[in-house]
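User: My instructor asked us to take a sequence, write out its structure as C-alpha cells, and then describe one feature of it. I'm not sure where to start. Here is the sequence I was given:
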Amino acid sequence: KGNAQAVVINSGNANACTGPRGLKDAHEMAALLADELLLKPTDVLVGSTGRIGLPLPMPNIRAGIREIVKELDDAPSAAHHAAEAIMTSDTRAKEIAVEFKLGGKNGQTVRLGGIGKGSGMIQPGMSPTGARPASAPLHATMLAYLTTDAKVDARTLRTCLREAVAASFNCITIDGDMSTNDTVLILANGLAGNKKLNTRDLKIFQVALNHVCLELAKMMVRDGEGISRMVTVRVKGAKTAADADAAARAVGNSALVKTSWHGGDPNWGRIIDALGYSPAKVIEEKVDIAYSKPGASGAKALVHSLKKGRPTKATFKTLCAAVAPTEFDLHINLNLGKSTATLYAADLTEDYVDYNKGDITNPASLGG
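Assistant: Let's start with the prediction itself. The C-alpha cells for your sequence are:
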C-alpha cells in the first residue's frame, strides 16, 4: 500500500518453500515487532535470507525480536551492525550513505543510505510484481534496505526505486542463479522537511538513489563467493534492448567465459560462442570485442581481440595484460543497432565450487 514503519529481517533461514507454516511465521514476526514498537502489523515489512525449505526457529526469533528492540539506535554504528547481522555467505558488511541538498543552495540537507547483503545465488530480476522483465554453507540471497529523510510521496518513491533497481541490482550476476527471496525496499520519513520535489530536485534525488543502489550492487559482486575478478560487460550496437541484455547475460553467465576470466585467459572464442547461442541477433562478421580499464571507453583505451569477427594483431601477451587486473571492462559491439546493456559479472573459481558443493554429512544442506 506504500506505507511502512519498520522492517524485521532474519538471516540463516529463507523461510521459503515452507508452506502455510512459513506464512504464519512471517505474519507472527511482523506482529511481534509491531507490538514492541506500538505499530500495526501491516506497518512492518519482513525479510528473510538463508536456507530454503526449513521452518523458522520461532522460539529464537521471538526472543531475538524482543531483545533487539532494546538496541535500536540512530548512530552510524547501528547501521553497520544491521548490515553485519543480515550477512550469510558475505565476507564483509555492505553499506553506503550520501548527503545532498534539495531546494537549491538554501534548501534542506537530505540523507539517503542503504545496507545490503548478497554473495551467491545472485542474478536478481526484480519488478513490482516479482516477475522478471549449519556446518554447511549458508544459502544466499540479495537483500537491500534503503532509508532517506527526504519528504517524498509513495508513488514518486516507487517510481524512483524502480528506475534505480533496473540500472543496478537487476544488472549484476555472480553465478546466474536468482534467489527466492530477493528484496529491495526504501523507506522515507520526511524529517528533512524539504518542499515537494520539483523537476530539478527529483533529478537530484534520482541521481543519489541510482548511485547508492549501484554501489551496493557492485559491492555484492566484488564480495561474490570465491570470486577473484569483477568484469563489467558492456554491450552496444544491439538491434534491441532485449538483445543487448541477452548478449550481456549469455557472456556474463557462461561457465567457460567465467573460468577463463579466473585464469586470466583472454579467450575471445568463448565470448563469441556465448554471443552466438544467446537469443540476441548476432552477425559474426560485425562483432567487435575489446578490453579496457574500468570505466574507460575511448578508442585509445580499448585493447581489441576481435574486429568485424576476425582476430586482431594484438599479441597474446597484450591481451593477457588487459584481463589481468582484478577489475576490467569487456566491450562488445554487435554493430547492428543502437541499444546497449551493462552487466556487472564475476569469474568462477575453485573456491566457489568448494563453497557450494554441499555437505553430505548434513541433511540441512538439501535446502541450498
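For the description part of your assignment, you could build on this observation: The chain has three domains: 1-72, 97-225, 230-348. Try explaining in your own words what that tells you about the chain.
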